[in-house]
Amino acid sequence: LLLRQEAILHPHVDALIDDFIQAHPGQDIVLNATVLYKTASMARCSCVLFVDAPLPLRFFRARRRDGMKARQILARFWEQRNLFAKYKNLNADIQRVSNTGNKKALERKIESFLQEA
Question: Does pLDDT of 98 surpass 90?
Answer without folding.
Answer: yes
